[in-house]
């Protein structure tokens, strides 16, 4: 059975972050990966979808909340 679009997006994002994160050696380096991922998402919002830069952080806050809820509901990290 084919993946739903959101499942494909989740898998691709998870694979990229895991690949980059596994190359880190310290918590500080891992935070750079997390920050870079967030910056890329903000750039996507602005450059591809036309969100005003001032509003990109609002979208990110909403995304963080939704991700936290999904993480809590699934009870798993992967």
Structure description:
The chain starts with a helix and ends with a helix. The relative contact order is 0.08. The mean pLDDT is 91. 79% of the residues lie in helices and 0% in strands. The protein has 3 helices and no strands. α1 (5-22) runs antiparallel to α2. It has 78 residues and is mostly helical.
Relevant terms:
0% strand, mainly alpha, 3 helices, 78 residues, single chain
How far apart the termini lie comes to 20 Å
Mean pLDDT across residues: 91
Unreliable segments of 5+ consecutive residues: none
Instruction: Give the CA-based shape.
Output: globular
Q: Count of helical segments? A: 3
Instruction: Report the biggest beta sheet as strand number plus sense, adding barrel if it closes.
Output: none
- Write down the Rg: 14 Å
Helices and strands, in order, run as HHH
Derived structural class: mainly alpha
Count every beta strand, where a strand is a DSSP E run of 2 or more residues: 0
Helicity range:
over 70%
Amount of beta strand: under 5%
List the helices and strands and how they pair.
Elements lengths: L4 H18 L4 H22 L4 H22 L4
Helix pairs in contact: 1-2, 2-3
Concise description?
Helix content is 79%, strand content 0%.
């Amino acid at each position: 059975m084919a993946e739903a679009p959101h499942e494909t997006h989740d898998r691709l994002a998870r694979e990229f972050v895991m690949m980059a994160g596994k190359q880190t050696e310290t918590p500080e380096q891992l935070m750079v990966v997390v920050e870079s991922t967030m910056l890329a998402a903000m750039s996507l919002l602005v450059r591809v979808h036309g969100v005003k830069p001032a509003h990109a952080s609002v979208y990110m806050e909403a995304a963080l909340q939704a991700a936290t809820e999904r993480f809590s509901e699934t009870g798993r990290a992967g």
